[in-house]
Amino acid sequence: MDFIYKNPTAPIEARVQDLLSRMTLEEKLGQMTQIERSVVAPSVLKDRCIGSILSVGGSGPIEMALTSDWADMVDNFQKAALESRLGIPILYGIDAVHGNNNVYGATIFPHNVGLGATRDSELAKRIGVATALEVRASGIHYAFAPCVAVCRDPRWGRSYESFGEDTEIVRNMTSIVTGLQGQRPEGHPKGYPFLAGRNNVVACAKHFVGDGGTDKGINEGNAILSYDDLERIHMAPYLDCISQGVCTIMASYSSWNGVPLHASHFLLTQILKEKLGFKGFIISDAEGLDRLFHPHGSNYQQSVLYAINAGIDMVMVPFRYQLFLEDLTYLVQSGKIPIARIDDAVERILRVKFAAGLFEYPLSDKSLLPAVGCKLHRELAREAVRKSLVLLKNGKDPKKSFLPLNRNAKKILIAGTHADDLGYQCGGWTATWEGKSGRITIGTTILDAVREVTGSNTEVIFEQNPSAQTLASQDISFAIVAVGECPYVEFGGDSRELPIHFNGAEIISLVADKVPTLVILIAGRPLVIEQRILDKVEAFVAAWLPGTEGGGITDVVFGDYEFQGRLPVTWFKGVDQLPSNAVEKSYDPLFPIGFGLTSKGEVL
Ligand code: GLC
């Protein structure tokens, strides 16, 4: 007998209901479970009908694994899942948040704050298309992206994951969802998940809602604001994602007026599912349930009860899944969680899997392998870097522009901790969860790019911390000093003081006292720049976290392309001003949101 759910020409809703009607309680609860790859025993996929597997930051087959190793790993998990009684395929998820950033050799695009500086929604869509190809090439179906946080305070450790502090900028950049998933057809039912085909990935708008609005920018903190402000400032980008057919939405670790999002029936069910009509599935954050009570995981069964009844559909456990399934089974069998809630969750999960074509194409497509880190994608990333650069100062004398630089100058000094460090250029969520220093993947540092663009008669010298002797030599035409932040992620990035790391301000001062200097800041957010330092330099460029294509920086500073980037965030004078957003009467920034110069000194 042909089962409807196995019929690719049957309507998705018919397939969902047919399959749901055949599932046991154990299989339904298994589908609601997402576990980390490192704890997966193939038998558990077959016997427990696990719905999804993920790589938490950096978790992969082996360090610097080939893309084909990734695809083989995912396919092996999938083959085990397909041997389950009903043959329901898994979704494999990863944080592909600026390219497929876990995979060695993948194109690493600028982090979201830099894309926000471009204001270019078409570019964001094209980056989504490229990212989806590089993710599917690795056999992976699901990207925990985009983060659509509206970051209202740069002290937040995840501010670089946000497109900016202004809701309209973030809304404009949600077009990346269409790039990742494909163009939702006009007639597609509102709120329902959409995926175009095998070259697209299931996307995940995150973290719902108000993660970027927590008090003092404290990560996983508490957003204290009215419902109207929550909706106007932080919820608006989700409507854009839902209108593009976003398949999944991730709940935030943070709270709203003291209620944790993971336990908020009002926001997850009454607002997101009922009022906004979202028909994909809501996934928890990693150990999001464990964090509902303190100490961490202390009352786990209660956490499961609150989170599932609030409206969480899939739980990113991701390690202690036996305990999760034990508790969930007890809670359903004891009637504390209604079976109708379970059916709603599983319906949504199956709907996404059918929309994603997983039942038809469960395994990787090796023909996509050449897409990873290909020239076309690196050119796209280089274009994004160019468009993300914000010129904040150009010439001590505004009438005498310092940029563009002369590529045939006699001698150029390249200095600073970030001039020749690919890992610093990429920032967090690259190669590993936190990111790290050094040649972590294939790419071009600022120093590499300067060497490529300068004339054969130009001497390029590189000293991270230039010696007094070097600085004393009279024949240096100009210096480029690249400084900024070391990579960080989540709590690791929360900062009260926002300094330039590694004594970057001193390096700037030392060099600029002796040589005409361009500063390039490699950071996930504005940092404290004292006016006395700014006065010393000839030019200052915010380059954010540009990723692997450092050539995009020299393209602009040496004049092949014009600056077009504008600040997506406020550049404050001091941390005592924070939070500082344009709507306040006391708004007194060093540079206002939207500020940016051209190389001719015109304000964009
Ligand atoms: C992390 C992040 C979330 C990410 C998830 C999986 O803690 O909060 O953005 O998608 O866990 O790595």
TrEMBL record:
Q: Does the keyword Hydrolase apply?
A: yes
Which N-terminal residues, if any, form the signal peptide?
Answer: none
Q: Which GO terms describe its molecular function?
A: beta-glucosidase activity
Q: Its Gene Ontology biological processes?
A: glucan catabolic process
What domain of life? Eukaryota
**Which residues are in the Glycoside hydrolase family 3 C-terminal domain?**
389-598
Q: Locate the Glycoside hydrolase family 3 N-terminal domain: which residues?
A: 24-352
Q: Which UniProt keywords apply?
A: Glycosidase, Hydrolase
What sections of the protein cross the membrane?
none
> Which InterPro entries does the protein's record reference?
Cellulose_Degrad_GH3, GH, Glyco_hydro_3_C, Glyco_hydro_3_C_sf, Glyco_hydro_3_N, Glyco_hydro_3_N_sf
Name this protein carries in UniProt: Uncharacterized protein isoform X1
Q: Which gene encodes it?
A: LOC113710801
